[in-house]
Amino acid sequence: MEDLSADEANNFYTALVGAAFIEAAQHHFIENGEVANEVQVIDFVSQVLESSGEYANLINPRLAESILLDLPGKGTMIDAEPGIKFGHQIVMLSAMVGERDF
């Protein structure tokens, strides 16, 4: 880490979070090769919003759903700034990891 510039560290952090998000979403929404449907994704996002009042202020449910549905090709991600998408990934990653109860 000491050998990386601030820009390099930020880029690697973004890539790490993105990879962790994809891995968590695959584990959460794909079971025995069967991909979750739109209703299951909507239910998950609703649960995230209900679980904490702070999440309701941090994420746009339609964007969150579109990010999750875009991964397995079941939808198209709606347009948003990269930083906004990244924030949504962090919140949803936290929720998926939290459900695993490691």
Please give a structural write-up.
- This protein has five helices and two strands; from the N terminus they run H-E-E-H-H-H-H.
- The protein has helices at 6-29, 38-51, 53-58, 61-70, 82-100; strands spanning 30-31, 34-35.
- Strands 1-2 form a two-stranded antiparallel ribbon.
- Strand 1 and strand 2 (34-35) form a beta hairpin.
- It is globular, with a radius of gyration of 14 Å.
- The two termini are 27 Å apart.
Helix content: over 70%
Mean pLDDT: 87
Weakly predicted, low-confidence segments: none
- Please give the number of β-strands: 2
The count of helical stretches stands at 5
Sheet with the most strands: spatial strand order? 1-2
Order of helices and strands: HEEHHHH
Rg value:
14 Å
Given the C-alpha coordinates, what overall shape results?
globular
- The fraction of residues in strands falls at under 5%
Please identify the oligomeric state: single chain
Structural class: mainly alpha
| Cα distance spanning the termini | 27 Å
Largest sheet: 2 strands, antiparallel
Question: Which helices and strands appear, and what pairs or packs with what?
Answer:
Elements: H1 6-29, E1 30-31, E2 34-35, H2 38-51, H3 53-58, H4 61-70, H5 82-100
Antiparallel strand pairs: 1-2
Helix pairs in contact: 1-5, 2-4
Provide a compact summary of the structure:
By secondary structure, the chain is mainly α. It contains 5 helices and 2 strands; from the N terminus they run H-E-E-H-H-H-H. The protein has helices spanning 6-29, 38-51, 53-58, 61-70, 82-100, and strands spanning 30-31, 34-35.
